[in-house]
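Q: I'm a student working through a structural biology exercise. My instructor gave each of us a protein and asked us to get a predicted structure, then write a short paragraph describing it. Mine is 5-dehydro-2-deoxygluconokinase. I'm not confident about reading structure output yet, so if you can add a plain explanation after the C-alpha cells, that would really help. Here is the sequence I was given:
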Amino acid sequence: MQNTTHFAADRPLDLICLGRLAIDLYARQLGARLEDASSFARYLGGSSANIAFGTARLGLKSAMLSRVGDEHMGRYLLQTLSGEGCDVSQVKVDPERLTALVLLGIKDRDTFPLLFYRENCADMALEEADIDEDFIASSKALLITGTHFSSAKVNAASRKALALARQHDVRTVLDIDYRPVLWGITGRGNGEQRYIASDGVTAHLQSVLPLFDLIVGTEEEINIAGGSDNLLTSLAVVRQLAPQATLVVKRGPLGCAVIPAAIPERIEDAFSVKSAQVEVMNVLGAGDAFLSGFLSGWLNGRDYGWCCTRANACGALVVSRHGCSPAMPTPAELDYFLGLETTPLRPGDDATLNRLHRVSIQRKQWDDLCVFAFDHRKQFFELAQQSGVDEARISTLKNLLVQAVAETEAALQLQGHIGILVDDRYGEDAIYAATGRGWWIGRPVELPGSNPLEFDRGRTATARLESWPQEHIIKCLVQYHPDDTLENRLEQEAQVRAIYEAAQLSGHELLLEVIPSKKLPQQPDTVLRALKRFYNLGIYPEWWKLESMSRAQWQAVDALLAERDPYCRGVVLLGLHASLDVLRQGFADAAASSSCRGFMVGRTLFHEPSQRWLAGELDDAGLISAARANFETLIDIWRSRRQPR
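A: Happy to help. First, here is the predicted structure for 5-dehydro-2-deoxygluconokinase. I'll explain a few features afterward.
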C-alpha cells in the first residue's frame, strides 16, 4: 500500500520527539518479583526518548524535546542520546527537579512490574516557554506521546508545539502510549496495568485527535481514544474526529494494521503485515521499537508494507532482549534478520545478530592511537625487588605514569588519540585516575607468562567484568601458535572463547594480543594463520594487538580483516621492549597498513625511568618528565611515519 504522506523538503531534522525522558532501571534477575530483584541495569527510558533513540539508530535525523534534572542521570541521558546522533539542543536542564525514574522487572513472559518515580519530575515540567517556533519549523515531523497531555502544564506545551507544527507544514504523530498510572487513575504500585476505561482520559485524547496526521496505538490504546471496548467502534470514532489521519494498530504477535482511509468491517480486512514469531523475554518498549521502525520508513516515503515489515522486525528483536533503548536494532541487524529464511525463535541467542548489535552501532572512532602500556605486573615486581623497595610503591609509580600521559595529552593536544594499558593488581588507583578522561583504557586478564592461557584471577576473572566501567577494554594476551600441539591449541582456544563470550555478555570490547610461542618455528604466515583460526572458531575481537611485521605481512592481515570482519576496530602494534630504532622501522611498515590504528608500547617507555625512580635517583617530577620525553618521542616517530597516509 502506497504511503502518500507529504513532507516538507529541505528540513534539517526528520523528527522531533516530545515527551517522557527518564532513567529505566531493569531488574537483572529474570523470573523474580520486583520485591526480590537484587541488581538493576540502567538504560535510557521514556517512550518519546526511546523513539528518538531508535529512529536515530535507524538513520533518521531525530531530536528530543523535553527536560532532565541538573544531575548525573540527566547528564547520562543527554550523553546517551547525543552519542546515538540525536539532537538534544532543546532538552532543557531543570535546576529544581530530578530526572524521572522507572523501576522495571521481568517476572515471566506476561508479567512486567513497573514502578514510576515521577513526582514533580523534570520531563513533566515542560512548559510553553520551552517550545521554540524555529525549532519546530526545522523538522519534517513532530511526535508526541499521550502522557504529555495528562497534566495542565505539559498539555499546554504539547498543544503549542502542535499549533506551531500546523503553521509550518510539519506532520504530526500521536503515540497514544496509555499508562493509567500516569493519568492518576490507578494506584502507584500498578504501573504494569495497561488499560482502565476512563471517560476523562478519553475526552482529553479526543480533543487532540484532530491535530494529528498519524495516530498509533495498541488495540487497548485505540479503545481508550475511541471510548469503547470494541476496536472497530473505537476506530470509527477516531476516524470521525481525525478524518485526515493514518491509523496504525499494533497487534502484538499478530503484527499490525494500517488504515489510511475508511474503517473496514473487520480489522482483518485492513492492510496488515504479520509479525515474526519470537519468544518473548520483555515486552516493555516493544511499541517504541515498532514505531521507530515504522517512522524510519514513513518519513522516507516508503510504502506501508516496507514500514510495517521493519516495524514488526524492530518489535520482535526488542522483545527478545533485556532492555528497550539498548536493544534497538541497527539497519545492519534488520537486514540480516529480515534476510533469514527461518526466523529464530530466540533472536537474542543468535550469535550473528548479537555481534551485529554490538559492532554496527555508532561507536567512538579511534585512529592514530598512542597508548602507553604499563599493565605489566611481573616486570614491575622485579623492578621493585631489584631496588629493594616494597611492592606497594608500584601503585604510586603507576599513578605518576597516568600524570605523565595526561601531561602529554595536554601538551600535544592529542585528545581522542591517547590511551593506556594498566592492570588492577598494582594499578587500581591509576585506573580510577584515568577513567572518565576520554582515553582508550585497556585492562589485562591473562596470567603473565601462562601457556596455555590462564586468567590472572582464575575462574573469577570473567565474573569480575561486571564491576568494570563500560569504557574499559579487555586485553588478553595469548601465546598462540597454529602449529602447537593439539592439546595446547585446544586449551588455548577454549580459554580465548571463554573470555570472548564473557565480553559478549558484559558488553566490553576485547583486544586479543597474539604472540606465537617463540619455542616453535616462526613462518611468515604464522600470525595470519593464527588470526584465521580464531575467526574460524567464531571469535571476533574488536581489536588485535600484533608484533611488528613486514609490509607484505601487514597487507595480508589487512586483506583478512576486510574479508572476515569489516567491523573490526583495527590492529595496534606492540613493542616488546624494542629499542626506538627498531620501533621506528616497525612503525614505517605498520603505517602503510589500512588496519593498523596505532601503537601500544610499554617497557621501552617506562623501564629506565621507573628503575631510577624506585632506586631514589629520580623524584616524582623527574619520573614524569622522563616518561613524557620517551612517550612524546615515540609519538613523534609514529606520526611522522603516519602522515603520508
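A: Here are two points you could use in your paragraph. The two ends are 50 Å apart (CA to CA). Residues 620-642 form the longest helix (23 residues). It's a good idea to check both against the output above yourself.
Q: Great, thank you!
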